Amino acid sequence: MNILVTGASKGIGNAIAKELLQIGNVFVTGRNEEALKTIGAKGYCVCDLTRDVHNLQEFIKENRINVLINNAGEYIYGAIDSASEEEIGRIFETNLLAPVKLISAAVPFMKENKWGRIINIGSISGVMGEAYASLYSSSKAGLIGLTKALALELAEYNITVNTINPGWVETELGMNSIDEGEFTKDEIIECIPQKRFVKPDEVAKLCRYLISDGSKGITGQGINICAGLSVGI
User: Is 0.90 surpassed by the pTM of this model?
Assistant: First the structure.
C-alpha cells in the first residue's frame, strides 16, 4: 500500500508516519524539509497547504496513494470578532479545504482498485466546541461531516473513511495552544478524567488499526481518543 501522511514534520503526523513505516510505502508532506528527511519515508513533498496544495494533488496521483491520512492542522485562539480575513482563510484552507482537495485527487485510484483508506485527524473541539477557538472547532467539525458523507459515497468501492478526534495531545501544537489560552497545564489536566494528555503514538496506533483488514467494517465514524474528555465531568 502507498500511504501519504500530511503534516508529518512533527507531532501526531510524525508519530503516524513512523508507525506506518512497518506496514507500507510511506510518503510524507509538511513545510519542514529537514524534518521530513529524518523520517525514513519512501518519498516526501515539501508543501504549504494554503499555497501549494495543487503540487500535492499531483504527488498523490504520481505515487498512486491508496491510504490518505489528513493530519495537517492549524490552531488559532481568539475571539471571533478579532479574527482577521487572513486567519479565517488560512485555518479553513488547511483544516478542511485541503483535505477535500487531496481526497478528490486520491479517490480515482482507490476506486479503480476497489480498496482505499481515508483517515481525517479531527479534534475533540470539533465534537464539543471550544470557546475562543471557533475557527478551529468549526473547521474540524466540517471534517466530521465530510467523513460521514464520503463513507456512504465510497462504501461500495471498499473504501473506508473515518475521523480520529484527539483531545489534549502532548505535542508542540498542544502545548503552544495552552500558552495561548487562559488555563494552565495543571488546570487542564484536572479537567481530563484520566488526568493525563494523550500521547501521539496512541493516535498513530489507532491509524494503523483503521488501515488494517480487521477494521474494514468501520467507516463513517468519529473516534474520540481524548482520555475521557468527551464523556463529561
Answer: yes
Q: Report yes or no: 44 and 28 within 8 Å, Cβ to Cβ.
A: yes
Give yes or no for residue 144 having a pLDDT over 70.
yes
Q: Given pLDDT bands bounded at 50, 70 and 90, which one contains residue 233?
A: low
For 5, the grid coordinates are 501522511
What residues have CB less than 8 Å from 162, skipping those under 6 apart? 118, 119, 120, 147, 151, 210, 218, 219, 220, 221, 222, 223
Active-site residue, from 77, 132, 136, 157: 136
- Find cell 494528555 and name the residue: 197
- Give the pLDDT of residue 185: 78
d(CA 109, CA 26): 17
Could you give the C-alpha distances from 4 to 43, 44, 59, 209, in angstroms and in order?
9, 9, 10, 16
First to last CA, the chain: 41
pLDDT digits (tens, 9 = 90+) for 146-185: 999 999 999 999 999 999 999 989 876 666 666 566 667 7
Half-sphere exposure of 110 (CA within 13 A, CB side): 27
Secondary structure (3-state) at 116? strand
Has 44 been annotated as catalytic? no
Instruction: Tell me 196's DSSP state.
Output: S
Helix axes 172-180, 11-20, angle to 10 degrees: 170
Whole-number Å distance between alpha carbons of 89 and 50: 9
